[in-house]
Amino acid sequence: MLSSIDPDVVKDMKITASNNIEDLLNKINFKNKDVYVIPYGGNVVPLLEED
Description:
- The chain is an all-alpha fold.
- It has a domain of 32 residues.
- 22% of the residues lie in helices and 0% in strands.
- It is built from two helices and no strands.
């Protein structure tokens, strides 16, 4: 996920977050995987609420 969100917030959802596109692309293994680009993805990713 290309975002300024703290990576620890989304790691439990198995989402890799980075605010730098080059770093993000270097972290991802694209071999034999489908990739989805979701513009304005923040509108569809759930946020965890604190109790």
